[in-house]
Amino acid sequence: MTTPAGTAATAAQVTAWRNAVVVAYGASGLAFASWVSRLPAIRDALGLTPGTVGAILLCMTLGSFASVSVSGLIVLRLGSKQTSRTGSIMVGVGLLTAGFGTTVLANPVATAAGLAIIGLGTGSWNTASNVEGAAVERAVGRHIMPRLHGAFSLGTVAGAGLGAGAAAIAMPVFWHLAAAGVVVAVSVATAASWFRADATPVAAARTYSPDNFEDPTTGPIPVLTAGTTAGDAPLDNKRKIAQAWRDRRTLLLGVLVLGLALAEGAAGDWVALALADGHGQSDAAGAAGYGLFVTFMTIGRFAGTVLLDRFGRVPVMRWCAAAAVLGLGVFVFAPEPWLAYVGLALWGLGASLGFPVGMSAAADDPAKAAARVSVVSTIGYGAFLCGPPLLGLLAEHVGILHSLLAVMVMLAVSFVLSPVARKAG
């Protein structure tokens, strides 16, 4: 599907666009949960300790951080459509490589290389998805970013469920990850045909809601062209990124997202192992526990649209940070395994809205959305990606469960910084 550049989106085009973005978010969640849910199997196949698991995860972290650090320039140069396609294909290749390294070669270096490729594809793809999501959110005229990230969570639920099933029947990691990689690459490459953020201009702002969304009753709403400002010649892309890194609100938003992103990332990488090693659960039960976490994160994200429309960003961010602290504490100190699962549910609800609200807030000014989203993404993904491997090193000394207590410090910072999520004037 193609649309002339500089045209507004019709209602039908916005619907198709929104659905395509939903597919892209869902595929990203499926990719992430596919390899995360098989971490116990990867650890056992390669004979890894918590420290070496952290070292392998660090390879993905380095790839992701390198990619997300330049993602703003990539999106401004290629556009969010092409960036999403390229990134998803790289993730598919990385899944295939990680599975091959685990099952066929039984080589930690090959597995780490696969995770590094996943990281390289994921960083820029996620920034492009958030730019695209913020643009379609403006076109729809409601807080739909939580539901788009909810699609990511649905993808993680599906991926975790498939991972738990694969673990239960002892399916080789290679065949599982190879199939997931093909699904991810093909689905996103197809869905991107309906993306529009690169092709439509910025409209003047009109307010109707507590967070100043444009009025959806006035007809088609034009949105951001990734590399242009409204009515102006394109700015130098590097200068756009530099300006975003000097913007105080953008940096504080990044720190706000950092704490909640760390809570989400720590769960993704360590919940299955923490249940297995800290609470004496089986590998399949550990994968199912991660599935429970992402299920409640999904519930929080789909409920988030209603909560944000009613109460606004600041109160909701405070509730989320508080719930994440409570759930994490219950999970760590639970005297019985069933109570740990209750903690996971609260933890998932609390971590649910950090990324989507942060991305929406960073994109409040559509003309600067790509640059500012890339900055907040870099800071947030830095915690999401760097935190879990560092927790692995800490776990060598205090154990996996108690290492998770370090996350509470940044959650407290997120609670304090909640007001910066308010709509920019």
Radius of gyration: 20 Å
CATH superfamily: MFS general substrate transporter like domains
Quickly count the domains. 1
Structural class: mainly alpha
* CATH hierarchy class name: Mainly Alpha
Outline the structure in words.
The protein has 17 helices and no strands. The chain has about 425 residues and is mainly alpha-helical. α3 packs antiparallel against α15. The chain is globular and about 50 Å long. The N terminus is likely disordered.
What is the secondary structure topology, with strand pairs?
Blueprint: H1 11-36, H2 39-46, H3 50-69, H4 71-78, H5 80-104, H6 108-140, H7 145-168, H8 173-191, H9 237-245, H10 248-278, H11 283-311, H12 313-333, H13 337-351, H14 354-362, H15 369-398, H16 400-403, H17 407-416
Helix pairs in contact: 1-5, 1-6, 1-7, 1-8, 3-6, 3-15, 4-5, 4-6, 4-15, 5-6, 5-8, 6-15, 7-11, 7-14, 9-15, 10-11, 10-13, 10-14, 10-15, 10-17, 11-12, 11-13, 12-13, 12-17, 14-15
Could you list some keywords that capture this structure?
single chain; 425 residues; mainly alpha; Growth Hormone, Chain: A; 76% helix; MFS
Summarize the structure.
Helices cover 76% and strands 0% of the residues. With 425 residues, the chain is an all-alpha fold. It has a single domain (11-421), classed as Growth Hormone, Chain: A (Up-down Bundle).
